[in-house]
Amino acid sequence: MIDVPLSVLDLAPVAAGTTAGQALRHTTELARRTEELGYQRFWVAEHHNMPAIASSAPPVVIAHLAAATSTIRVGSGGVMLPNHAPLVVAEQFGTLEALHPGRIDLGIGRAPGTDQVTALALRRTMDGLSAENFPQELADLVNYFTGERPGPITASPGKGDMPAVWLLGSSGFSAQLAGMLGLPFSFAHHFSSTNTLPALALYRQHFRPSQWLKEPYAMVAVNAICADTDEQAQWLAGPAGLSFLKLRSGRPEPLATPEEAAAYPYTEIERQFTRDRMHGQAMGSPETVRRQLSALLEQTQADELMLTAMVYDIEARVRSFELIAEHVAGGLRREH
Length: 336
Hints:
Blueprint: E1 2-3, E2 6-10, H1 20-37, E3 41-44, H2 58-68, E4 73-80, H3 86-99, E5 104-109, H4 116-123, H5 134-146, E6 164-169, H6 172-181, E7 185-187, H7 196-206, E8 218-226, H8 230-248, H9 258-263, H10 268-278, E9 282-284, H11 286-300, E10 304-308, H12 314-327, E11 333-334
Parallel strand pairs: 2-3, 2-10, 3-4, 4-5, 5-6, 6-7, 7-8, 8-9, 8-10
Antiparallel strand pairs: 1-11
Helix pairs in contact: 1-2, 1-12, 3-5, 6-7, 8-10
GO cellular component, one term: cytosol
Organism: Micromonospora pisi
Protein name: Luciferase family oxidoreductase group 1
Protein backbone atom coordinates (compact mmCIF):
# COMPACT_ATOMS: atom_id res chain seq x y z
CA MET A 1 0.00 0.00 0.00
CA ILE A 2 1.19 3.55 -0.74
CA ASP A 3 0.07 6.91 0.63
CA VAL A 4 -2.01 9.00 -1.77
CA PRO A 5 -1.23 12.74 -1.98
CA LEU A 6 -4.05 15.24 -1.64
CA SER A 7 -4.43 18.46 -3.62
CA VAL A 8 -6.90 21.35 -3.79
CA LEU A 9 -9.17 22.72 -6.52
CA ASP A 10 -10.62 26.10 -5.57
CA LEU A 11 -13.13 27.99 -7.71
CA ALA A 12 -12.80 31.29 -5.80
CA PRO A 13 -16.49 31.14 -4.82
CA VAL A 14 -18.19 34.54 -4.62
CA ALA A 15 -20.48 34.45 -1.60
CA ALA A 16 -23.74 36.41 -1.67
CA GLY A 17 -23.18 39.92 -0.35
CA THR A 18 -19.44 39.89 -1.10
CA THR A 19 -17.24 40.85 -4.05
CA ALA A 20 -14.96 39.06 -6.48
CA GLY A 21 -12.02 40.78 -4.78
CA GLN A 22 -12.98 39.26 -1.43
CA ALA A 23 -13.37 35.85 -3.07
CA LEU A 24 -9.89 36.04 -4.56
CA ARG A 25 -8.39 37.15 -1.26
CA HIS A 26 -10.06 34.16 0.42
CA THR A 27 -8.61 31.87 -2.26
CA THR A 28 -5.17 33.30 -1.52
CA GLU A 29 -5.68 32.68 2.19
CA LEU A 30 -6.69 29.09 1.46
CA ALA A 31 -3.66 28.53 -0.79
CA ARG A 32 -1.30 29.69 1.96
CA ARG A 33 -2.98 27.50 4.59
CA THR A 34 -3.14 24.37 2.45
CA GLU A 35 0.55 24.81 1.64
CA GLU A 36 1.24 24.82 5.39
CA LEU A 37 -0.88 21.68 5.77
CA GLY A 38 1.14 19.78 3.16
CA TYR A 39 -1.24 19.60 0.21
CA GLN A 40 0.49 18.74 -3.07
CA ARG A 41 -0.94 21.31 -5.48
CA PHE A 42 -3.49 24.14 -5.63
CA TRP A 43 -5.48 24.64 -8.83
CA VAL A 44 -8.00 27.23 -10.02
CA ALA A 45 -10.38 26.71 -12.93
CA GLU A 46 -11.52 28.77 -15.89
CA HIS A 47 -15.23 29.61 -15.81
CA HIS A 48 -17.10 32.44 -17.51
CA ASN A 49 -20.45 34.18 -17.04
CA MET A 50 -20.85 32.59 -13.59
CA PRO A 51 -21.53 35.09 -10.78
CA ALA A 52 -20.60 32.52 -8.11
CA ILE A 53 -17.05 31.96 -9.43
CA ALA A 54 -14.21 34.52 -9.60
CA SER A 55 -11.56 32.37 -11.33
CA SER A 56 -12.27 33.44 -14.91
CA ALA A 57 -8.61 34.31 -15.61
CA PRO A 58 -6.46 31.41 -14.30
CA PRO A 59 -3.03 32.72 -15.43
CA VAL A 60 -3.56 35.97 -13.54
CA VAL A 61 -4.78 34.19 -10.40
CA ILE A 62 -1.97 31.61 -10.61
CA ALA A 63 0.66 34.37 -10.82
CA HIS A 64 -0.73 35.91 -7.65
CA LEU A 65 -1.02 32.59 -5.80
CA ALA A 66 2.47 31.46 -6.78
CA ALA A 67 3.90 34.75 -5.51
CA ALA A 68 1.95 34.38 -2.24
CA THR A 69 3.27 30.85 -1.61
CA SER A 70 6.66 29.17 -1.87
CA THR A 71 6.46 25.37 -2.15
CA ILE A 72 3.00 24.16 -3.20
CA ARG A 73 2.50 23.54 -6.92
CA VAL A 74 0.03 26.03 -8.44
CA GLY A 75 -1.91 25.56 -11.65
CA SER A 76 -5.04 25.44 -13.73
CA GLY A 77 -7.81 22.92 -13.43
CA GLY A 78 -8.09 23.96 -16.11
CA VAL A 79 -7.50 26.33 -18.96
CA MET A 80 -10.10 25.65 -21.66
CA LEU A 81 -7.84 25.54 -24.69
CA PRO A 82 -10.46 26.08 -27.44
CA ASN A 83 -11.15 29.51 -25.88
CA HIS A 84 -7.57 30.65 -26.52
CA ALA A 85 -4.85 30.69 -29.14
CA PRO A 86 -2.27 28.04 -28.21
CA LEU A 87 0.50 30.64 -28.60
CA VAL A 88 -1.10 32.88 -25.97
CA VAL A 89 -1.42 29.99 -23.50
CA ALA A 90 2.22 29.01 -24.16
CA GLU A 91 3.42 32.55 -23.49
CA GLN A 92 1.30 32.93 -20.36
CA PHE A 93 2.31 29.64 -18.78
CA GLY A 94 5.86 29.89 -20.08
CA THR A 95 6.05 33.18 -18.18
CA LEU A 96 4.64 31.56 -15.05
CA GLU A 97 7.12 28.69 -15.28
CA ALA A 98 10.01 31.11 -15.87
CA LEU A 99 9.01 33.07 -12.78
CA HIS A 100 8.29 30.00 -10.60
CA PRO A 101 10.32 27.12 -12.07
CA GLY A 102 9.14 23.65 -11.17
CA ARG A 103 5.94 24.81 -9.46
CA ILE A 104 3.47 25.40 -12.32
CA ASP A 105 0.84 22.95 -13.61
CA LEU A 106 -1.03 23.56 -16.86
CA GLY A 107 -4.24 21.55 -16.76
CA ILE A 108 -5.94 21.67 -20.14
CA GLY A 109 -9.63 21.11 -20.90
CA ARG A 110 -11.56 21.07 -24.15
CA ALA A 111 -14.99 22.18 -22.86
CA PRO A 112 -15.83 25.90 -23.04
CA GLY A 113 -16.24 26.32 -19.28
CA THR A 114 -19.40 28.29 -19.96
CA ASP A 115 -22.53 28.48 -22.13
CA GLN A 116 -22.39 28.57 -25.92
CA VAL A 117 -23.25 32.29 -26.18
CA THR A 118 -20.38 33.21 -23.87
CA ALA A 119 -18.07 30.80 -25.67
CA LEU A 120 -18.87 32.61 -28.90
CA ALA A 121 -18.05 35.94 -27.24
CA LEU A 122 -14.69 34.52 -26.13
CA ARG A 123 -13.76 32.99 -29.47
CA ARG A 124 -15.44 35.58 -31.73
CA THR A 125 -16.20 32.87 -34.29
CA MET A 126 -18.38 29.78 -34.62
CA ASP A 127 -15.29 27.80 -35.62
CA GLY A 128 -14.10 25.53 -32.88
CA LEU A 129 -17.26 25.57 -30.76
CA SER A 130 -17.41 21.79 -31.19
CA ALA A 131 -13.78 21.48 -29.97
CA GLU A 132 -13.02 19.13 -32.87
CA ASN A 133 -9.66 20.87 -33.40
CA PHE A 134 -8.60 20.24 -29.81
CA PRO A 135 -5.98 17.51 -30.51
CA GLN A 136 -4.19 19.73 -33.04
CA GLU A 137 -4.40 22.78 -30.76
CA LEU A 138 -2.91 20.70 -27.94
CA ALA A 139 -0.09 19.49 -30.21
CA ASP A 140 0.63 23.09 -31.22
CA LEU A 141 0.70 24.19 -27.58
CA VAL A 142 3.14 21.47 -26.53
CA ASN A 143 5.35 22.24 -29.53
CA TYR A 144 5.61 25.91 -28.51
CA PHE A 145 7.10 24.66 -25.23
CA THR A 146 9.39 21.98 -26.66
CA GLY A 147 10.31 23.44 -30.06
CA GLU A 148 10.47 19.89 -31.44
CA ARG A 149 8.85 21.01 -34.71
CA PRO A 150 10.79 24.14 -35.73
CA GLY A 151 8.66 26.85 -37.29
CA PRO A 152 8.58 30.58 -37.91
CA ILE A 153 7.16 31.37 -34.43
CA THR A 154 8.96 31.02 -31.11
CA ALA A 155 7.05 31.41 -27.85
CA SER A 156 9.14 33.61 -25.60
CA PRO A 157 8.67 32.98 -22.74
CA GLY A 158 7.46 29.51 -23.56
CA LYS A 159 10.12 27.55 -25.36
CA GLY A 160 12.26 25.87 -22.74
CA ASP A 161 9.92 26.90 -19.92
CA MET A 162 7.39 24.08 -20.03
CA PRO A 163 5.07 23.60 -17.05
CA ALA A 164 3.72 20.18 -16.14
CA VAL A 165 0.94 19.58 -18.69
CA TRP A 166 -2.16 17.65 -17.65
CA LEU A 167 -5.28 16.72 -19.56
CA LEU A 168 -8.60 17.14 -17.78
CA GLY A 169 -11.83 15.39 -18.60
CA SER A 170 -15.37 14.45 -17.62
CA SER A 171 -15.82 11.80 -20.32
CA GLY A 172 -13.76 9.35 -22.34
CA PHE A 173 -12.34 11.61 -25.08
CA SER A 174 -9.64 13.37 -23.07
CA ALA A 175 -8.96 10.15 -21.16
CA GLN A 176 -8.01 8.34 -24.36
CA LEU A 177 -6.02 11.31 -25.67
CA ALA A 178 -4.11 11.69 -22.39
CA GLY A 179 -3.25 8.00 -22.51
CA MET A 180 -2.09 8.09 -26.12
CA LEU A 181 0.11 11.14 -25.44
CA GLY A 182 1.51 9.78 -22.19
CA LEU A 183 0.25 12.73 -20.13
CA PRO A 184 -1.13 12.75 -16.58
CA PHE A 185 -4.93 12.79 -16.46
CA SER A 186 -7.33 14.42 -14.02
CA PHE A 187 -10.97 13.33 -14.00
CA ALA A 188 -13.86 15.57 -12.86
CA HIS A 189 -15.58 13.11 -10.51
CA HIS A 190 -16.95 16.13 -8.64
CA PHE A 191 -19.51 16.75 -11.37
CA SER A 192 -19.43 13.63 -13.55
CA SER A 193 -19.26 10.73 -11.12
CA THR A 194 -21.04 8.20 -13.37
CA ASN A 195 -18.25 8.49 -15.96
CA THR A 196 -15.29 8.19 -13.59
CA LEU A 197 -14.51 4.48 -13.78
CA PRO A 198 -15.05 4.11 -17.57
CA ALA A 199 -12.83 7.13 -18.26
CA LEU A 200 -10.02 5.91 -16.00
CA ALA A 201 -10.18 2.50 -17.64
CA LEU A 202 -9.83 4.11 -21.07
CA TYR A 203 -6.90 6.21 -19.88
CA ARG A 204 -5.01 3.23 -18.56
CA GLN A 205 -5.92 1.05 -21.54
CA HIS A 206 -4.62 3.60 -24.08
CA PHE A 207 -1.60 4.78 -22.11
CA ARG A 208 1.72 4.89 -23.95
CA PRO A 209 4.97 5.80 -22.13
CA SER A 210 6.30 9.24 -23.04
CA GLN A 211 9.10 11.63 -22.17
CA TRP A 212 6.83 12.89 -19.36
CA LEU A 213 5.48 9.65 -17.87
CA LYS A 214 6.55 6.01 -17.90
CA GLU A 215 3.32 4.82 -16.27
CA PRO A 216 -0.24 6.21 -16.11
CA TYR A 217 -0.86 8.87 -13.47
CA ALA A 218 -4.52 9.56 -12.70
CA MET A 219 -5.92 12.17 -10.35
CA VAL A 220 -9.59 12.26 -9.34
CA ALA A 221 -11.26 15.54 -8.35
CA VAL A 222 -13.96 15.11 -5.69
CA ASN A 223 -16.21 17.35 -3.61
CA ALA A 224 -15.00 17.06 -0.02
CA ILE A 225 -16.56 19.03 2.82
CA CYS A 226 -15.48 18.08 6.33
CA ALA A 227 -16.78 19.40 9.65
CA ASP A 228 -16.94 18.19 13.23
CA THR A 229 -20.19 16.30 12.57
CA ASP A 230 -21.99 14.80 9.57
CA GLU A 231 -24.90 17.18 10.13
CA GLN A 232 -22.70 20.25 10.11
CA ALA A 233 -20.97 19.16 6.91
CA GLN A 234 -24.32 18.60 5.18
CA TRP A 235 -25.39 22.09 6.33
CA LEU A 236 -22.22 23.60 4.84
CA ALA A 237 -22.77 21.67 1.58
CA GLY A 238 -26.23 23.13 1.00
CA PRO A 239 -25.10 26.27 -0.89
CA ALA A 240 -23.01 24.25 -3.36
CA GLY A 241 -25.95 22.06 -4.29
CA LEU A 242 -28.23 25.06 -4.72
CA SER A 243 -25.62 26.92 -6.79
CA PHE A 244 -25.25 24.00 -9.19
CA LEU A 245 -29.03 23.64 -9.46
CA LYS A 246 -29.43 27.33 -10.36
CA LEU A 247 -26.56 27.16 -12.83
CA ARG A 248 -28.06 24.17 -14.62
CA SER A 249 -31.46 25.86 -14.76
CA GLY A 250 -30.00 29.01 -16.34
CA ARG A 251 -30.22 31.17 -13.19
CA PRO A 252 -26.62 31.50 -11.95
CA GLU A 253 -26.23 33.53 -8.78
CA PRO A 254 -23.56 34.17 -6.12
CA LEU A 255 -23.17 31.42 -3.53
CA ALA A 256 -26.08 31.47 -1.07
CA THR A 257 -25.69 31.25 2.69
CA PRO A 258 -26.36 27.86 4.33
CA GLU A 259 -29.50 29.39 5.86
CA GLU A 260 -30.76 30.49 2.44
CA ALA A 261 -29.98 27.08 0.95
CA ALA A 262 -31.84 25.31 3.76
CA ALA A 263 -34.87 27.57 3.33
CA TYR A 264 -35.03 27.22 -0.47
CA PRO A 265 -38.38 25.73 -1.64
CA TYR A 266 -37.02 22.73 -3.55
CA THR A 267 -39.40 20.72 -5.70
CA GLU A 268 -38.98 16.97 -5.35
CA ILE A 269 -37.24 16.86 -8.74
CA GLU A 270 -34.84 19.62 -7.66
CA ARG A 271 -34.12 17.88 -4.36
CA GLN A 272 -33.33 14.66 -6.20
CA PHE A 273 -31.07 16.60 -8.56
CA THR A 274 -29.01 17.92 -5.64
CA ARG A 275 -28.88 14.46 -4.03
CA ASP A 276 -27.61 12.99 -7.29
CA ARG A 277 -25.04 15.77 -7.49
CA MET A 278 -23.58 14.71 -4.15
CA HIS A 279 -23.57 10.97 -4.90
CA GLY A 280 -20.11 9.48 -4.59
CA GLN A 281 -18.65 12.61 -3.00
CA ALA A 282 -17.22 13.07 0.51
CA MET A 283 -19.32 14.98 3.04
CA GLY A 284 -19.26 14.57 6.80
CA SER A 285 -17.14 14.24 9.91
CA PRO A 286 -13.49 13.23 9.57
CA GLU A 287 -14.43 9.60 10.11
CA THR A 288 -17.13 9.75 7.44
CA VAL A 289 -14.90 11.57 4.95
CA ARG A 290 -12.09 9.07 5.53
CA ARG A 291 -14.47 6.21 4.81
CA GLN A 292 -15.86 7.88 1.68
CA LEU A 293 -12.48 8.86 0.24
CA SER A 294 -11.07 5.41 1.01
CA ALA A 295 -13.96 3.84 -0.89
CA LEU A 296 -13.31 6.17 -3.84
CA LEU A 297 -9.64 5.20 -3.84
CA GLU A 298 -10.50 1.52 -3.74
CA GLN A 299 -12.81 1.95 -6.74
CA THR A 300 -10.56 4.18 -8.83
CA GLN A 301 -7.02 3.27 -7.70
CA ALA A 302 -6.26 6.97 -8.25
CA ASP A 303 -2.68 8.14 -7.81
CA GLU A 304 -3.85 11.43 -6.29
CA LEU A 305 -7.06 13.03 -5.06
CA MET A 306 -7.94 16.68 -5.67
CA LEU A 307 -10.46 18.05 -3.18
CA THR A 308 -12.83 20.91 -3.85
CA ALA A 309 -15.17 22.61 -1.37
CA MET A 310 -17.70 25.24 -2.42
CA VAL A 311 -18.35 26.51 1.10
CA TYR A 312 -19.89 29.93 1.81
CA ASP A 313 -17.75 30.88 4.80
CA ILE A 314 -13.95 31.05 4.36
CA GLU A 315 -13.29 29.99 7.96
CA ALA A 316 -15.40 26.85 7.45
CA ARG A 317 -13.69 26.19 4.11
CA VAL A 318 -10.23 26.44 5.65
CA ARG A 319 -11.35 24.30 8.60
CA SER A 320 -12.57 21.59 6.23
CA PHE A 321 -9.12 21.26 4.68
CA GLU A 322 -7.50 21.37 8.14
CA LEU A 323 -9.65 18.50 9.41
CA ILE A 324 -8.88 16.41 6.34
CA ALA A 325 -5.13 17.08 6.59
CA GLU A 326 -5.05 16.35 10.32
CA HIS A 327 -7.47 13.42 10.61
CA VAL A 328 -8.00 11.89 7.16
CA ALA A 329 -4.92 12.21 4.96
CA GLY A 330 -2.68 9.82 6.86
CA GLY A 331 -5.13 6.95 6.43
CA LEU A 332 -5.61 7.24 2.67
CA ARG A 333 -3.71 4.53 0.82
CA ARG A 334 -4.11 2.52 -2.35
CA GLU A 335 -2.65 -0.66 -3.73
CA HIS A 336 0.64 -0.48 -5.68
